[in-house]
Inverse folding.
């Protein structure tokens, strides 16, 4: 309120200056700044300043109520009493004065216009309680704009900024807003016990945080004390070793120095030899001279090859503190035994759902629970919010993910109240379309002599039988054995669908793609024992048939896979398809995906592990389309299994 009063006074002072003929320079911007009580920043109020804002009568009433309570000890005196004035009992809003009972009767007699004045209890605030329009100063607000959510006058609605807005009466807005506010207040009151319990919980958490903080400080101090003890011990040990080496070297050098001092005249060995030379007895001289000669000869040799008995340098005793210093520089808090989990990208996969698996690389310090967080990687939104889920095992299935999107995943472990740091973020891509579920058809054209289908009908293998042996004698003519076709048991007539499969590493040749029901019937009714690749579209070989391939939409598309290679067809309607044979041969992904868009007439082949499109082309989808496969030689195809909702849940021991 003090800020409002100061701003009001400054606005009134500016008005008074304008009334006296003072005008601003035309280059001076007519703006007023007001300190916001919330963010503490100055807000520009425009040319009208604070007068362009609505008065908050509710806040004024609350403030006045507290002011009256604060002034209860100090009475408001009558403005018209003769000295000494009496305590006032009423305040006239029209006269802007306070009266005692006698003065009020004198100045507001019955039967006069003054008797109709509005009076309230004793107050010093005589501002009229009338809400005026900030845009039309002489008009009272009598309507409520539902779009702008503010009171407006009739001129604002007729030709002002709210002309095209929907407005309602003030009484209706009052009723609606009062009901909403009452409901919100009732809800808060009804949750009072919950709020109190949460306040109590927060108080306990504050105390626990304070205790844990002091305990952590004490533990950190103890850890550093241990480091200091280790350093002090190592320091003392290093100093002892240096001192011992110094004393040993000094002893050796001292002994060597004494030995060399004996070589001086009249000292030691030389003096003794000089005395021996004075001996005249031959037998005594010979007895002593032999040993003395050996000693002098050794001293002479030592003199010729002088070498100190010890080194003065202590370069072998330089302490290398580079690595310990780096380790101490990187010294930080750790997770107190909870190892950082790591997401296993090989076991994690995206298909109809997301299966996220993780483990501890050190195989130690496993957590009791885990928090898995994930968010959509969106270029439009810089930092989208993380979604989290609590997991008791080391894997989790996430559902309801958007197709053709990238998601980031991270996980952290909890052991009691201690948590590990977040793992490295792993980004996985969802399929470009919803997953299409089907099984291999064991009735339509299924050749049980050549193909072996498992009981679940999601895996098929080609086995070389007697027909292959009979056809082997014709291999010299450059022919190949026939392709054995097998299709899915469910067709597609509309929409966009995706499915994936895996090939056995030993597979020689497999064709995979889509085909219409009419084309499938043609394949099964016109089968040949031996076929040449020159008559097979998309065979993957550089044959003449692909050079003369008719550039028109076909009701089928097959790509060639085998020998751990992925062959992009040469005769392709795709303009970006490579024409040379080297660039048309790619390493075969471990999992291949197919995306069929019947509405746009397109089929794409993907690296299903990375969800990267390898090849795409147009296809005629006028008929019912089926997943189609063709196997030749030794080969095996396994359909990718859909991820169940409880897939690998609570299977920690198998991870």
């Amino acid at each position: 309120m003090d800020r409002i009063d100061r701003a009001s006074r400054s606005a009134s002072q500016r008005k008074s200056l304008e009334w006296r003929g003072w005008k601003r320079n035309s280059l001076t911007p007519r703006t007023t700044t007001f300190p916001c009580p919330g963010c503490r920043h100055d807000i520009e109020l425009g040319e009208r300043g604070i007068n362009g804002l609505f008065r908050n009568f509710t806040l004024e009433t609350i403030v006045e109520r507290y002011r009256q309570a604060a002034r209860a000890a100090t009475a408001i005196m009558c403005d018209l009493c003769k000295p000494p004035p009496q305590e006032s009992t009423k305040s006239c809003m029209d006269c802007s004065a306070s009266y005692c009972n006698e003065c009020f009767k004198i100045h507001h007699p019955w039967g006069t216009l003054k008797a109709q004045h509005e009076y309230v209890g004793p107050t010093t605030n005589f501002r009229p309680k009338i809400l005026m329009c900030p845009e039309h100063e002489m008009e009272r607000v009598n309507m409520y704009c539902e779009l702008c959510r503010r009171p407006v006058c009739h001129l604002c609605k007729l030709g002002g900024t709210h002309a095209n807005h929907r407005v309602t009466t003030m009484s209706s807005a009052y009723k609606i807003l009062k009901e909403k506010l009452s409901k919100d207040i009732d809800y808060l009151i009804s949750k009072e016990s919950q709020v109190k319990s949460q306040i109590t919980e927060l108080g306990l958490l504050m105390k626990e945080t304070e205790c844990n903080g002091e305990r952590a400080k004490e533990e950190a101090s103890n850890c550093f004390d241990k480091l200091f003890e280790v350093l002090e011990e190592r320091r003392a040990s290093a100093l002892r070793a240096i001192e011992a080496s110094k004393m040993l070297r000094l002893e050796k050098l001292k002994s060597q120095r004494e030995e060399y001092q004996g070589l001086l005249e009249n000292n030691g060995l030389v003096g003794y030899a000089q005395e021996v030379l004075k001996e005249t007895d031959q037998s005594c001289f010979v007895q002593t001279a032999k040993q003395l000669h050996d000693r002098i000869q050794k001293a002479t040799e030592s003199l010729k090859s002088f070498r100190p008995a010890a080194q003065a340098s202590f370069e072998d005793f330089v302490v290398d503190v580079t690595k310990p210093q780096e380790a101490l520089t990187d010294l930080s808090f750790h997770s107190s035994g909870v190892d950082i989990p790591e997401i296993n990208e090989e076991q994690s996969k995206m298909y109809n759902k997301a299966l996220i698996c993780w483990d501890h690389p050190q195989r130690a310090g496993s957590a009791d629970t885990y928090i898995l967080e994930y968010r959509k990687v969106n270029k439009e939104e810089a930092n989208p919010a993380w979604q989290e889920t609590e997991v008791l095992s080391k894997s989790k299935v996430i559902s309801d993910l958007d197709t053709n999107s990238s998601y980031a995943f991270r996980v952290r472990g909890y052991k009691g109240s201690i948590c590990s740091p977040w793992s490295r973020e792993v980004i996985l891509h969802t399929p470009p379309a919803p997953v299409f579920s089907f099984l291999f058809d064991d009735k339509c054209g299924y050749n049980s002599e050549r193909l072996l289908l498992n009981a679940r009908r999601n895996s098929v293998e080609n086995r070389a039988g007697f027909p292959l042996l009979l056809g082997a004698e014709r291999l010299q003519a450059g022919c190949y054995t026939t392709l054995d076709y097998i299709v899915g048991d469910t067709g597609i007539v509309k929409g966009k669908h995706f499915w994936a499969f895996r090939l056995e590493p030993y597979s020689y040749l497999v064709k995979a793609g889509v085909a219409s029901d009419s084309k499938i019937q043609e394949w099964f009714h016109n089968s040949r024992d031996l076929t040449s690749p020159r008559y097979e579209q998309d065979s993957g070989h550089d044959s003449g048939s692909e050079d003369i391939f008719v550039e028109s939409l076909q009701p089928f598309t097959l790509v060639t896979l085998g020998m751990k290679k992925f062959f992009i067809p040469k005769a392709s309607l795709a303009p970006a398809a490579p024409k040379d044979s080297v660039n048309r041969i790619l390493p075969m992904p471990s999992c291949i995906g197919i995306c069929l868009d019947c509405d746009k007439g397109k089929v794409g082949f993907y690296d299903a592990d990375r969800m990267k499109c390898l090849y795409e082309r147009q296809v005629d989808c006028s008929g019912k389309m089926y997943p189609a496969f063709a196997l030749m030689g030794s080969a095996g195809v396994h359909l990718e299994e859909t991820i169940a909702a409880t897939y690998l849940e609570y299977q920690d021991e198998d991870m």
